[in-house]
Amino acid sequence: MLEAKSFELFPEAASSIAGHVDAFYAFMVLVSAFFSLLIAFLVVYFAYKYRHRPGENIVYAPYDDHSLSAMLLEVVWTAIPLGLSMIMFVWGISIYFTEARPPVDSMEIFVTGKQWMWKIQHMEGAREINELHIPVNRNVKLTMTSEDVIHDFFIPAFRTKADVLPGRYTTEWFRATKVGSYHIFCAEYCGTKHSGMIGTVTVMTESAYNTWLGAGGGEGSMAEQGQALFNQLGCGNCHASIVNNQNGRCPNLVGLFGSTVELKDGKQVKADASYIRESVLYPQSKIVAGFDDYMPTFKGLITEDGMLKLIEYIRSLGAKNGVINQATPLPVQTADPAKAAISKPGVALPLPGSGGVAR
Amino acid sequence: MTTATPPVKEPKNYLNAEHGLRSWLLTQDHKRIAILYLIAVSAFFVVGGLMAVLIRLELATPAGDLMDSNTYNKVFTMHGVIMIFFFLIPSIPAILGNFLLPLMIGAKDLAFPRINLISWYVYMLGGTFGVIVLLSGGVDTGWTFYTPFSSSYSNGYVVLTALAAFINGFSSILTGLNFIVTVHRMRAPGLTWFRLPLFVWAHYSTSVIMILGTPVIAVTLFLLMLERGLHIGFFDPAYGGDPVLFQHLFWFYSHPAVYIMILPSMGVISEVISTFSSKKPFGYTFIAFSSVAIAVFGFLVWGHHLYVSSQSAYAGMVFSILSYIVAIPSAIKVFNWAATMYKGSVRLEAPMLYAIGFIGLFTVGGLTGLFLAAMGLDVHLTDTYFVIAHFHYVMVGGAIMGYQAGIHFWWPKIVGRMYPRAWATVAAILTFVGFNLTFFPQFILGYLGMPRRYHVYPPEFQVFNVLSSAGASVLGLGYLIPAIYLIWSIKNGEPAGANPWGATGLEWQTSSPPPTENFEVTPVVTTEAYDYTALTLTTQEVTHVG
């Protein structure tokens, strides 16, 4: 919660991962406290016990630090820290891999950072700035990008953060476990008002969230807005967005999202958000096999927010493909393996949640 | 320094050999160059310290009430840039290393005295650019210069600042080169590698990092200047660059650079602990090789700064395990230092108090580094005050405590006079207490989630910030007092004699201050380092704090 508490040692734990991070942290604190106190005790005790008293001769006691016992000592105080640190290493990566991999059933929300605000876009169309409303006990995956410099989306109560980079998409996920309001901080220094780039995440019950979502819209879902943009930019002049359309100038986009695309140079690439973004901004960098370097760049013509909507629209085409194919199997298109790959049914990624499908 | 006219009877030494500004500015004597560095580096420490004062004053309240955000950002940037590039990196190597390395190995000077002087002028040139930046309005990128903020968005003097650090790097390279050649070529007869003092091993390892790492930061800063000045795309996606590439290049140098800052300090601690325990360092070879291991492995861990920067998780794993491995040599050193005191003859003189403080603070700093090497924990902790606290435990609690231990240990050698020891004891204790008060609360702040580089912060973080600012005033006193008594002692201290601490190094066998040529007769080494048997009969008079 956001009420000012002045003397807490642990921040509020409000996500599924927070307990694991806190437990690991507590272990680290205990190990560190033990070794710090051990060293402090030894040093202070030796300083007292073997102190040189004024007036005494300094006694020099030669000793052999290559003796067996000395070597044994060296081995012991090398091996114990090494063993302990390997426990820390493994524990650390096990938590990290949970943090870094969003569950497949995550609902998706999109984040655009810019100096100095967070713009949030829900799939259903709701938009907000410096606020993030999410339902409790649902896996939430953020897809994030920046319009300018590097930012970092940090929610201490969820014990997670990730950099938000210009020119690419990064992800972050969490499952909130407690209804309440928590801080969002920009954790990567981003210029003058860096410390003002903060916000609030509001965790709501599922029903409250649905009510909130319903109240917010008006502009249509992200995919619908993406479709409007698609038409506005004239993408459909070359790219077919209907199954079976054989307009041959550019690849058919139906079923593209999540498929494997064969490129002119023989390489293969997975058609994810980054690939689509790159193809819109730098069309010449990856040419699909069987096509020419024909498409002009749309750099400067589309905002990062618009790009996310466009990608959502293209993803929604994949869903239609999957649904339609079950009913009416596609006729064999061409002998071109690239095209075959693009329109191959069933390769679209499973869609997140219920709210993501274009209605 | 130049005005210190010694009593008529005082024998010729490097301080009174020549007089006048010219004799200092054109000197090729490593000891005089060390003094030049001491003056310049101390001046930068004062400026960087004043920046820290401003930061702690501003953060005493949650609101931004002392300065505006832009000014605050410039203040913490200048604090970082000055303290890292113009204080921590040159402090021990260029001052104590310069002064002591030839003395410790029984040489008349470094291998390249002229290059040594040039390195000081290069440092001053870089420093001049730094001062110009400061006077003309500063820079707000943070000392890390992350792109594309620095290359395309910052409104400060980025190119000039990068140029200052770029030029300064050449000073490091020249010093490192000089040290390596000196250790290889100038050792006194009989002084084999395994008879070298551990201070020399530490500086040798540091020098290797300096000459291998510094060119990389030079290239990186050069690319940054090209992108900012000419819009040639390396790092900004708007020009087709990769923003994370900068972080890889930057940390490829800047992580080893923290070992440039801490290794020399570890060298000092080995000398001080041994001397004030009158005992050969336990595990000499382990301490020596741990320095080398740190220098080697230190180059392989840079990616632990990038766990949340979209770096591959598998790359992160490799960097994580290597980061744990690089921690082991430091642990070995700490245990060996503690074991050195066992059954020694321990005297708690000021340098020893600083060294004991170092062991405690460095241990905490090192252990909290393990938190940050753990990938899953670093996700929460990185870019928070936990990192600030860890870094300051290692750099202030470690590197600067070590520097103070070294200054207090060799000051009688450098100026030939003793400082008031009771005051030095007070200063060491104040520094230790003030330091912990300042930085320990920041660990808690970090775990609570307070991000670094925040000018304004939510009110629930205030209590720990007030503690930290209060501690900083005690710490400031801990730095101010030595500044006063050390300067005072130059003229007014008791003559120290050649070997006031009962130490074994060759530097203690010549007079204090040493003559220009260091030794009247080139010493011949016949025993291991730290052979206290030869001293036992002559150090009965070793004095104690009143």
Could you name the ranges of chain A where pLDDT drops below 50 across 5 or more consecutive residues? 319-359
Question: What's the CATH topology name of chain B?
Answer: Cytochrome C Oxidase, Chain A
Q: Specify the structural class of chain B.
A: mainly alpha
**SSE string of chain B, helix = H, strand = E?**
HHHHHHHHHHHHHEHHEH
Number of spatially distinct domains of chain B: 1
Query: CATH top level of the domain at 222-343 in chain A?
Result: Mainly Alpha
Q: Return the structural class of chain A.
A: alpha+beta
Oligomer: heterodimer
* Main sheet properties of chain A: 5 strands, mixed
Number of helices of chain B: 16
Estimated radius of gyration of chain A: 28 Å
CATH superfamily of chain B, please?
Cytochrome c oxidase-like, subunit I domain
Please indicate the percent range of residues of chain A in DSSP E strands (runs of 2 or more): 15-25%
**CATH architecture level-2 label of the domain at 222-343 in chain A:** Orthogonal Bundle
Mean pLDDT score of chain B: 93
Structure overview:
In chain A, 35% of the residues lie in helices and 18% in strands. Chain A has 7 helices and 12 strands. In chain A, helix 4 packs across helix 6. Chain A starts with 17 loop residues before the first helix and ends in a 16-residue tail after the last helix. The C terminus of chain A is likely disordered. Chain B is mainly α. Chain B has a single domain, classed as Cytochrome C Oxidase, Chain A. Chain B has a two-stranded antiparallel sheet with strand order 1-2. In chain B, helix 3 runs parallel beside helix 13. Chain B is globular, with a radius of gyration of 23 Å. The C terminus of chain B is likely disordered. At the A-B interface, helix 1, helix 2, strand 7 and strand 9 of A face helix 3, helix 5, helix 8, helix 10 and helix 11 of B.
